Structures are given as structure tokens and as C-alpha cells.
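Standup notes
- DV: blocked on the single-chain target, sequence here:
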Amino acid sequence: MHTMLRSHFLVALLLCMSLAGCTSNDSSDSNNSMTEEQKKLPEWSVGQNWLYTFITPQFGEDSARLVVAEIDNGSEEYILGISSEREAQRHAVINHNPFLGRMTIDALAVYENGEPQQVFSFPWNVGDSWSFTLLGQEWEATTISLDNGNARVEAESSEGHELSYTFSGSKGFLERLVWRDGDGTIQLRMDLNVARPSYNGDVFFYRARDLIDRMYEENDQEIYDSFLDSGHPSEGDWDTLVWYLDVEIASNGAASGSLTMKDHAGASPLTRAWGSGATEKGAIGTIPSNSGDYSLTVTVRGPSSFIHLKVAGALVFEWTL
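- DV (later): unblocked, structure below
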């Protein structure tokens, strides 16, 4: 009887040790569960694409594909476009998708203010730290974990912004990205839905530069303003101008707002009027680029009323894959 009990005890003990060993190994693997191949810099091909859901305060939720539109071996750069022309226009004035445009082949570095920024750190290793500039912030980043083929990075800026993102070693690009400002408000969220090796259709990219960014608030008088369309510094005239409006008019009988834009030839490519209680959130559109001065006449009446206008000049790139 004692022999049988001892035998059952030894079997149970060995089973527990085996399970404990498995648990320990799983915990260790979960901290470094990327293959050596998944840790490496991926190689992209033309047409490779990733369908994302984008969420921003200005535009809410939308989905579009980031697509490798071109590979420039001379400059050693990928060119990423997007399947939605409207998303390309939004990026032109809000810059809410930093991964559109050029990225270096040797590091998938993203360009900001003309300089490549090392957002990713290949090959991935837990504990690696580095710095880069993106979305107008200077970030200090650290690789937190390698888990299930993904590298997770946390970054903070000196202004209190937080950036967290996950790079998929198997899909070759971001699995998720969340940018929170200093108040904790999410300014950008990207979630990957599906990654595919090829794409058929049109792809767009608007290479842009801000021309004006103004917030007009309650004023009893007409407001006069202007901006200059002098074209791209090296590429000549812009193909188009992209405008963005965010408007709120107070809810009282006297509240109202208006905006009129005129080019130097006297044409009025953009005219708007709003009554009491009107809102126009995240409105966007394009107007012809006519090099020279543009004049603005704005009225904003009513407490808490405002008109936020942004205009960017853009060079338009389009590919059909």
C-alpha cells in the first residue's frame, strides 16, 4: 500500500515538475518569441500592401491601404502611397499618417522635415533604446518585448506625449500604433486588418507643405489675412492647394461666420458662410494653385465661435498597379 502511494506521489511530483518547466519555458519564450528572420529588416516589393483602420480626432475612423507604390534604387528609398485619394489629401494638411511618402530601404526610416528618422530598430532586441523625431515630437524609444513574432516599442517625448507601436515580423510592418498627446488624448491610432503581397488599383501620395494655419475667433470686425503661394522650393508650381476647415459657430441669434479666399487674379476659389449653431468638422477639398498672394476676409461672431483654416500646397503623385 505504501509502495503504491509512494509511486502515485512520484508520478504527481514529476508531472508537476514537468508542468512547471513548461510554464517557465513559456514565460521565457514569451519575452523573446521572434525568430531570427522576423527580427531582421524586411524587404518590400512593389504592390505589397497593408489595410489599416485609422482613427483621428479630426476625421474619426476610416480605412485604407498603405501600398509600396515604387522602389527607387538610385536613392535607395521606398515610396508608400495610399489607396484613398481623400486620405492622401488629409495627410497633406494634417500630416496624420507619417508613413506616407519616402522610407529608406536600409532601415525603413521615415522622413520628417527632409531628414530620415529611425522609427524602427533592426534587428529587434529587447532593451534597445534610441531617439528620433516624428509627428513634431522628439521621442526616446525602447523595445519593450518580443512576443508572438511582434516587437513592441514604447516612446515618450519631452512634451509628455506617448507613442506605443507594435511591429509584425511576419507581416513586415506595423501591427498597431497609438499616439497620445500630453493630455492623454489619442491623436492617431492605426490598426492592421490584413497584409497582402500584391495590389491592383490606383495609389496616391500628396507631397505637401503648409502655406497657412490660422485659428480665427470671435471678433466684431472683419478680419483680413493673406498667404503666399510661391510653389515648391525646388519642384516648381504646386499641382493643387488642399484646404481644411474646422468650424464652430455659437448657438445664439447674432452668431455667424464667413470666409472668402481670393487669389491675386481676383478669383474666389473658396467661399463659406455659417449661421447660428453651425458646425463644419474636418471639411477638406482642393482648389487650383495660382502662384502669388491669396487674400482672406473672415467674420466670426458669437462667444466661443471659431474658424480654423489650413491650406497646403501639394505635388500630386498617382500610380496604377
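- Follow-up: Residues 1-31 have pLDDT under 50 and may be disordered.
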